[in-house]
Amino acid sequence: LAWVPLLLIWLGIGETSKITLIAIGSFFPVYMSLVAGIRNVDRKLVEVGDMYHFSHLDKIRRIFVPAAQPYLFTGLRNGLSMAWLCVVAAELLAATQGIGYLLTDGREVSRPDLVLIAIASLAVMGKLTDTLLKFVEERSLRWRDAFSTAH
């Protein structure tokens, strides 16, 4: 959120500064989780890949990507939540329409019903996008033998 003043100066009040803020805010959780996933790949798996003479590309495709996928999805879900926070922040600062404008307008005209509708709308959209990403995660990681509370 500290980027907001600079983005407004550099990019002006508009969609470009909002999109840039959302991209910056959501990038780092995804990046940090992916790096953690790559660093936590079991060394024995890499040694097996070496033993079978996997090329560098084969090791990436058959060892590193599958092993880092759970971390990637965790990062994507964290990044998604951060993106929604940045959407709210960007909308509150420089909105001329949309949900952020509804929040600001409701506050300025002392209409808590508008504020509550905007908050509920953001909550529903956040939950829907997280549920969709969780569904994609479960489908993508079906191969994984991990503890699940769903059974």
Provide the descriptors you would attach to this structure in a database record:
elongated; mainly alpha; 6 helices
Write up what this structure looks like.
By secondary structure, the chain is mostly helical. It has one domain. The protein contains six helices and no strands. It has helices at 4-11, 15-39, 43-51, 56-94, 99-108, 112-140. Helix 1 crosses helix 2. The relative contact order is 0.11. The model has no long low-confidence stretch (mean pLDDT 89).
Q: Would you spell out the secondary-structure blueprint of this structure?
A:
Elements: H1 4-11, H2 15-39, H3 43-51, H4 56-94, H5 99-108, H6 112-140
Helix pairs in contact: 1-2, 2-4, 3-4, 4-5, 4-6, 5-6
Mean pLDDT: 89
**Per DSSP, what share of the residues sits in E-state strands of 2 or more residues?**
under 5%
Instruction: Please give the radius of gyration in angstroms.
Output: 21 Å
Strand-pairing-aware structural class:
mainly alpha
Distance between the termini: 40 Å
Helix content: over 70%
Low-confidence stretches: none
For the biggest sheet, the summary is: none
Number of domains: 1
Helix count, DSSP H or I runs of 4 or more residues: 6
Order of helices and strands: HHHHHH
Number of β-strand runs? 0
Global morphology: elongated
Outline:
With 151 residues, the protein is mainly α.
